[in-house]
Specification:
Layout (H helix, E strand, L loop, with lengths): L21 H6 L3 H38 L1 H5 L1 E2 L2 E2 H38 L1
Antiparallel strand pairs: 1-2
Length: 120
């Protein structure tokens, strides 16, 4: 009786399906690409909704504050009634800050998405 013989093959791994990068999935609009895009759009929509909600609360809350605190209604700021000064001029820097924060966070979301797509 002869000794055992081990038979080996140069192919040690099973054949794998070629893996497409996520960017190709998005470009070809496959189901997986749709999932990636839906995820990005949902994240950006939540961000926009949050920023708009905060700004709306401030804009709608200021008249309520002036209504509930009568001392603020009678205060002056450089000869202009405080409610007018706040609602007509001082609110715009808040809008600019909100827009700046929105753009900054939206770009961060896009960078995270890009990293996710490149990693796949």
């Amino acid at each position: 009786m002869k000794g055992r013989v081990t038979v080996t093959s140069p192919r040690t791994a099973a054949a794998r399906r070629p893996r497409y990068p996520a960017s190709r999935e998005i470009d070809e609009q496959t189901r997986l690409g749709e999932v990636y895009m839906r995820s990005l759009l949902r994240t950006q929509f939540r961000l926009a909704l949050f920023v708009c909600t905060v700004l709306a609360c401030v804009v709608l809350g200021l008249p309520l504050v002036f209504l509930l605190v009568p001392e603020l209604r009678s205060a002056d700021m450089a000869g202009v009634p405080l409610p007018w000064a706040v609602l007509a001029g001082l609110i715009y820097p808040l809008f600019v800050a909100g827009a700046w924060l929105y753009v900054r966070q939206a770009e961060r979301n896009e960078r995270h998405f890009e990293d996710l797509v490149e990693r796949q």
